[in-house]
Specification:
Number of strands: 8
Order of helices and strands: HHEEEEEHHEEEH
Largest sheet: 8 strands, antiparallel
Radius of gyration: 16 Å
Number of helices: 5
CATH class: Alpha Beta
Shape: globular
Helix content: 10-25%
CATH architecture: Roll
Distance between the termini: 46 Å
DNA sequence: CGTTGGATTGGCT
DNA sequence: GCCAATCCAACGC
């Protein structure tokens, strides 16, 4: 069994475990010019089918169909009519779950990313779900791409997995429904996260538990 | 068929 | 901190 097969099995088995396992993985994009852009994933969020905040909560539709597809494929959607967001599908086909990729530590193709983003600050290149899609040139044409196929123009290279020293979990970001569980996972040592601190609501949640 | 609002971002007060 | 940008699926009538 290959390393990609094992990772796909993890994706299929548990969305929350997948979200943790994806932190530290290398995301690679080979663009139209054959130029390689890549970054180490440092921030993820888990979205399960039973979660009212998930696009899949009310069952499959036109936008979210890919969430119900094969684990390890890309679910890309447009938000606010402006930005794209990249997810990795998880859970068995037929179950609508996915992991949102929220930030990367930029590695290869810095110049191309800076050009795509009109930004030179490396910390500001991929520190948000919309930003990383802009930096890597990811749009809805990648919906359904198999991210665990080594020939895909957008892929994970699991042989380059660089595990974080520490994974922290917090409440997810930007949701209108109140959150209870910590389903956002970050490399606690990374300088490339979308937020510098834990969201304030997470602190409230911890205090209320006592 | 019209309305609503969103897993965001960047620019301005 | 506030808000516009700009698309479109979901929902209500």
């Amino acid at each position: 069994m290959s390393i990609s097969d094992r990772l796909r099995t993890t994706f299929e088995t548990s969305t929350v475990l997948a979200a943790r396992q994806i932190v530290g993985q290398l995301l690679v994009r080979i663009d139209e010019d054959g130029c390689r852009r890549s970054g180490r994933i440092v921030e993820t969020e888990a979205y399960t089918q039973s979660d009212p905040s998930s696009h899949s909560y009310r069952g499959p539709g036109e936008r979210n169909a890919q969430m119900f597809g094969t684990p390890g494929t890309a679910y890309v959607y447009l938000i606010y009519g402006v930005h794209h967001c990249l997810n990795i599908t998880t859970a068995p086909a037929g179950t609508g779950e996915a992991v949102l990729i929220r930030a990367l530590e930029p590695l290869d193709g810095l110049h191309a990313m800076m050009q795509a983003r009109s930004v030179t600050d490396i910390e500001a290149l991929c520190n948000g779900p919309g930003k990383l899609c802009q930096a890597l040139g990811i749009d809805r044409t990648f919906n359904g791409t198999d991210l665990l196929d080594s020939k895909s123009p957008l892929r994970i290279e699991p042989e380059r997995y660089h595990p974080p020293q520490r994974i922290d979990s917090t409440l997810r970001i930007g949701l209108s429904i109140p959150q209870r569980e910590h389903l956002r996972f970050v490399d606690g040592k990374s300088r490339f996260l979308s937020r510098k601190r834990v969201p304030e609501s997470a602190v409230t949640q911890v205090d209320r538990r006592r």
